[in-house]
Amino acid sequence: MLVTFHSYQESGKRNVADVKADRRKLPTDPDGMFVDLGSDKGAVLLAAAVLPFRRVIGSEIDEGLAGAARRDLERARFRLRAQRRS
């Protein structure tokens, strides 16, 4: 298994529009995996979910934030599938 670490970049307290604009800068790999450590409420995961990655994974130790991320991702599931197909 080949693992490539590209870089750490704090997303900070920006809005989702900023995160979506930044996703164009991400190196993508259709066979690769995007991992967000400290994923907060999942805004970066939502932005990465429409990029060509085999899998997108988030890790958050705060149960409240992790629960909010799961709810947000579940609500966005249909929209994300449609965006990936287009």
Description:
The chain has 86 residues and is α+β, with helices and mostly antiparallel strands. The chain has a domain at 29-85. Helices cover 42% and strands 19% of the residues. It has 3 helices and 2 strands. It has helices at 16-22, 43-48, 63-85, and strands spanning 29-37, 53-59. The protein has a two-stranded parallel ribbon with strand order 1-2. Helix 2 (43-48) links the parallel strand 1 (29-37) and strand 2 (53-59). The model has no long low-confidence stretch (mean pLDDT 77).
Low-confidence stretches: none
The shape, in one word, is globular
Helix content: 40-55%
Number of strands: 2
Q: What characterizes the major β-sheet?
A: 2 strands, parallel
Encode the helix/strand succession as letters.
HEHEH
Mean pLDDT, nearest integer? 77
| Structural class by secondary-structure content | alpha+beta
Report the end-to-end length measured between terminal Cα atoms: 30 Å
Q: What fraction strand?
A: 15-25%
Cα-atom Rg, whole angstroms? 13 Å
Give the neighbour order of strands across the main sheet.
1-2
Q: DSSP helix count?
A: 3
Please outline the helices and strands.
Blueprint: H1 16-22, E1 29-37, H2 43-48, E2 53-59, H3 63-85
Parallel strand pairs: 1-2
Keywords:
alpha+beta; two-stranded parallel ribbon; 19% strand; globular
Summarize the structure.
This protein is an alpha+beta fold.
